[in-house]
Write a structure and sequence with these properties.
It comes from Actinomycetospora flava. One of its GO terms (molecular function) is beta-galactosidase activity. InterPro entries: GH (IPR017853), Glyco_hydro_42_N (IPR013529). It is a single chain. The chain has 440 residues and is an alpha/beta fold. Helix content is 37%, strand content 9%. An eight-stranded parallel β-barrel has the order 1-2-3-4-7-8-9-10. Strand 1, helix 2 and strand 2 form a beta-alpha-beta unit. The protein is globular.
Length: 440
């Protein structure tokens, strides 16, 4: 019975990674997602087991600090090791998505002028996150790194390369846990962002220089909701430009595959955005940190579609996160996607705050016509994404494939490969395959 299920799975996984998956569909019409793992080691024994189980995708992470410990050149041993790892996965028949590793900057990058993001208090992120949005010096270092990365790996065989701006490798500015001040931190007060130091190409300085969100005054007059909206639009839009800039560098280096953008959470809900602008960004309307992180997917998804040179793929990292746990406990449940979600998500009478992160973010990608893949957050309590309110990892393994199907994802990659091959995790490759095939 299991063997028959695996054969059927392998047959269903034929085809390209994201072809024809821009909009959610009913379960009867939706194509079967492709399946894979995050943080693949490409170890031969694991590859053999995964391929026999019908898995087809491996997400492999590069590390900037290991590849470029000093400026101006790549560490040849580290580069050759990464290329060999990728090649093992490719030769085993896996499609490889490479994480660029920009979230792991070497120490010399942090020492560059205006290298770190700064909030309105002059603080820097606790994680030491580098300013990949506004700073000219760190951007130039990143451009050089990405160009060398493409040359160091078999880029013409890759399915995609992931890019991001955060310390987690995702879209966004630092989150509340990175600031020391909770939700009320805004990361646009470095010299470049305020127009007093060299600015990364393509970016604009703050439209209201010196204005601090929450302040009722600016430049001798009263601050307005319209002005706050323009400031926030600039703040959020700068993220889109930063992603587009990384994609342009990859294209200039000769990479023609998919650019994957890992997208956390659901972003700012429309009603919350209105409240936030009306209160001049003083903290009202900040539900989960999305405002301070600049995550306005209602506006950003169309912006990504228009600005990032394609092909581009949205990677939703919230498949069966803590919001899904809460949403499926409601009556009626609000955790999974429905065909009318793209239109309903912007209806003022629809209580989208009850929806899971996956459901709302998926609706915004669909509105923009962007293809979507996804992954689960990982074990609860892990710094990699899972929280204490998330499902236990075994439940994520069991539930996430169903969410991937219901939401019309082109592919789903399970976080993390290591957990499928380590007894202490309590989950196995057989558990994952059983959830995919319905034989669990």
């Amino acid at each position: 019975m299991r063997r028959a299920g695996l054969v059927a799975l392998a047959t269903a996984l034929a085809g390209v990674l994201v072809g024809g998956a821009a909009c959610p569909a009913s379960s009867a019409a939706a194509a079967e997602p492709a399946w894979g793992v995050v943080d693949s080691t490409c170890a031969p024994d694991r590859l053999a087991a995964q391929r026999a189980a019908g898995l087809q995708i491996a997400v492999v992470d590069a590390h900037w600090d290991r590849l470029q410990p000093v400026p101006g050149a790549f560490d040849r041993e580290a580069a050759d090791g990464l290329a060999a790892r990728i090649t093992r996965c490719l030769d085993a028949g896996m499609r490889v998505v490479l994480g660029s590793g920009a979230q792991y900057p070497p120490s010399w990058v942090r020492d560059l002028p205006d290298a770190l993001l700064r909030d309105q208090r002059g603080g820097v992120p606790r994680t030491g996150a580098v300013d990949l949005v506004f700073g000219a010096s760190p951007r130039a270092a990143l451009d050089d790194y990405l160009t060398r990365l493409v040359a160091a790996v078999p880029a013409d065989r890759l399915t995609g390369i992931r890019v991001g701006t955060s310390a987690a490798g995702e879209i966004g500015y630092p989150g509340p846990h990175e600031s020391g001040y909770g939700f009320n931190s805004w990361w646009a007060f470095s010299g470049p962002a305020q127009g007093t130091a060299p600015l990364a190409p393509g970016q604009r300085p703050a439209p209201m220089p010196g204005w601090v969100p929450g302040s009722a005054q600016w430049s001798g007059g009263a601050a307005t909701a319209v002005g706050a909206g323009e400031w926030f639009g600039w703040y959020s839009g700068a993220l889109v430009e930063a992603l587009a800039a990384q994609a342009r560098v990859l294209r200039g280096a000769g990479f023609t595959g998919e650019v994957h953008l890992p997208v956390p959470g659901r972003g700012v809900l429309p009603a919350d955005r209105s409240v936030a602008m009306g209160s001049l960004l003083d903290g009202h309307g900040e539900r989960d940190g999305a405002l301070g992180r600049g995550l306005d997917y209602v506006a950003a998804m169309p912006g990504i579609r228009d600005a990032v040179p394609g092909p581009v793929v949205i990677d939703l990292t919230s498949v069966d996160d803590a919001t899904a746990v809460r949403a499926r406990a409601l009556d009626p449940p609000e955790d999974t996607c429905r065909p009318d979600d793209p239109a309903a998500s912007l209806e003022p009478t629809v209580r989208v705050e009850r929806w899971s992160n996956l459901r709302f973010a998926r609706a915004q990608a669909s509105r923009a016509g962007l293809p979507v893949v996804g992954e689960n957050p990982g074990p609860p309590g892990e710094t990699t994404g899972g929280s204490d309110d998330s499902d236990p990892e075994i439940e994520q393994v069991r539930r996430a494939p169903g969410y991937a199907r219901d939401c019309g994802l082109a592919a789903f990659t399970l976080a993390f490969e290591e957990d499928l091959h380590t007894p202490r995790s309590g989950v196995t490759l057989a558990d994952y395959v059983g959830a995919i095939t319905g034989n669990s």
